[in-house]
C-alpha cells in the first residue's frame, strides 16, 4: 500500500502497528486488515469523488456505499475459476473410468468407492449453482456498524471526519422553507441530509421529508427511493393515499440500475409472488424488471453521488412541473450516472 503521508510504497512488513516504516506516521487503514480493503489513499479518492473535488458535501450513507462498493462488486462477480473447472472435470473423468472398470471386473467395492467423487460432483455442482443464484449479496460491514468500524478509526488517526462528511443524524425533522415549490420525499435520510447540507432547500425552495405525513400541502412531490420491491411500490401507494397530488417518481427504477455500468446491486431474500402481482398490476414495470426484483435484487438510492441527486432536483424544479408532459420528461432523467470506482 501507499503511505498517505510520504507516498512511499510499503510492503506488509514495513507497515506494522498501522505506522509507516519510513516516516513513522500512523495511518487509519491497511487493506489486508479490514473487510472493505480500505486504505487511506483510497478513502481520500472516494471523498474526492463524492464531494466533486471538494465542492459538495455528502452524507454518511453515501460515504458508506462508496466504501463498500468494491467488495460488493467482487462478491457478486466471483465465479468458479478455470482451475476449479479443470479439477472437477478431472475428478469426474477419473471417477467415471473407475466405475466402468469396476463394473467390467465385477469389483462392486471398487465401484462404490469411485461412485463417491462422481456423486459429489454431480450433486454438489448443481447445489452450488443454485446457492450462488439465490445467495444474499450484501456489504461485509453493515451500515449500522460503519460508524464504529470505519469512521471512528479515521477520526482517531486524523482527529476529524473526512472533509465534506455530514452525519445522517443531522436529519432530525422535516425541512420546510416558507413557500416550498416542491417536496422531496425519500425514506433514505442520507439523501435528505445530502440535499440539506448542500443548501438545496434554501436555494430552490424545496421541502425535505422522510414520511408522507410530513408533506407540505399543495405542492408536487419528487419521490426518491431504492430500486427494490418495496421502494417501487411507494409511488402508487402515495398516489392512492393522496389523490390529486402530483407525484414524480424519480426512481431508482430497476431498469436504470440494470442498464447502468457500475451500479451498486445487492441481493436479499427473493420477493414473493403476491408482492410481484401488485407491482405487475401498476403497469409500470417490464417482465424483465419484475424478474430482477423477484430474485431479490435491489439497489440503494443512498449510493448515488451528491451531484446526481442535486442535478435531479434542479432539473425537476426548472421544469416548473407543468402538466403531465413535464412529469414524463422529468421521469426520463433517471439516475444513470454512477461512480466508476
Structure description:
This protein has 13 helices and eight strands. The longest helix is centred in the middle third of the chain and has 27 residues, at 108-134. The protein is flat. Strands 4-3-5-6 form a four-stranded parallel β-sheet, sandwiched between helices. It is an alpha/beta fold.
Give the arrangement of secondary structure elements:
Layout: H1 40-50, E1 58-59, H2 60-77, H3 82-105, H4 108-134, H5 146-158, E2 165-166, E3 182-185, H6 189-197, H7 200-204, E4 206-209, E5 221-223, H8 229-241, E6 247-249, H9 254-259, E7 266-267, H10 273-282, H11 287-294, E8 297-298, H12 306-318, H13 323-332
Parallel strand pairs: 1-2, 3-4, 3-5, 5-6
Antiparallel strand pairs: 7-8
Helix pairs in contact: 1-2, 3-4, 8-10, 10-11
